[in-house]
Amino acid sequence: MINTVILDFDGVILESVSVKTEAFRALFSFSPVHLDEIVEYHLSHGGVSRYDKFRYIYTKILNAELSEAQFHYLSDRFAELVLEGVLKSPYVDGALVFLEKYYQNLNLFVVSATPEDELKSIIWRRGLVHYFDGIFGAPRKKADCIEKILQLPGITSDSTIFVGDSSNDLEAAQKTGIRFIGRIMKGDINRFDSQPGTERVITDLHELLGFIEENS
């Protein structure tokens, strides 16, 4: 019986993944020779915080030192680039229906790689705060956030499911021993195919609503 649902944010509640992809493209446009590799790294590591991505890009792709000043500039500029786009992003189909139906009957949480202060601001500005029992973001790792949720009264690993859109989300669920549902956009390659530990793959939150009804 599921009594707790943890949701990733970008790509699960909002269709905002492309906003952040374009932000990476703009942020590193100063290095066109590496740009495709940087964007591909970003896309293949969904669920990893932007901070860890910046460090990897400089160390492994640009082969350059990332100063503290440059790190803070990248972080601030990225936030500026994505904020307006995320605030305007459409909801994943069925997201509001799901939240409205279950926020009073289930424990609902957000766990995202977005910096926590920024995440809370976006959720507040989108008018979603009242749906959630907790909102968790970077710099904490997703597995650490999930572990914190599992310490709350009445919440156990076998009654908790994490809905994410990346292999990093699946790994966080596996690490913490909770169930996992993968979300992909209609027409996208099923990145969860052949990966053990995925209980179901959905394309929208109407399907998640049906899954919860089956398991409640």
How would you describe this structure to a colleague?
The protein has 216 residues and is an alpha/beta fold. It has 2 domains: 4-15 and 90-214, HAD superfamily/HAD-like (Rossmann fold, 3-Layer(aba) Sandwich); 17-88. The chain has 9 helices and 6 strands, in the order βαααααβαβαβαββα. Strands 3-2-1-4-5-6 form a 6-stranded parallel β-sheet, with helices on both faces. Strand 4, helix 8 and strand 5 (179-183) form a beta-alpha-beta unit. The radius of gyration is 17 Å and the shape is globular. The protein starts with a strand and ends with a helix. 34% of the residues are buried.
Summarize the structure.
About 50% of the residues lie in helices and about 15% in strands. It is an alpha/beta fold and about 220 residues long.
Please identify the top-level CATH class of the largest domain: Alpha Beta
The span between the termini is 5 Å
Tally of DSSP helical segments: 9
Helix content: 40-55%
Q: Give the biggest beta sheet.
A: 6 strands, parallel
CATH architecture of the largest domain: 3-Layer(aba) Sandwich
User: SS-based structural class?
Assistant: alpha/beta
What do the pLDDT scores average to?
93
The CATH superfamily label of the largest domain reads HAD superfamily/HAD-like
> Low-confidence segments, ≥5 residues, pLDDT <50?
none
Radius of gyration: 17 Å
Percentage of residues in strands: 5-15%
Total domains, how many?
A: 2
Shape: globular
- Strand arrangement within the widest β-sheet reads 3-2-1-4-5-6
Q: Tell how many strands the DSSP assignment holds.
A: 6
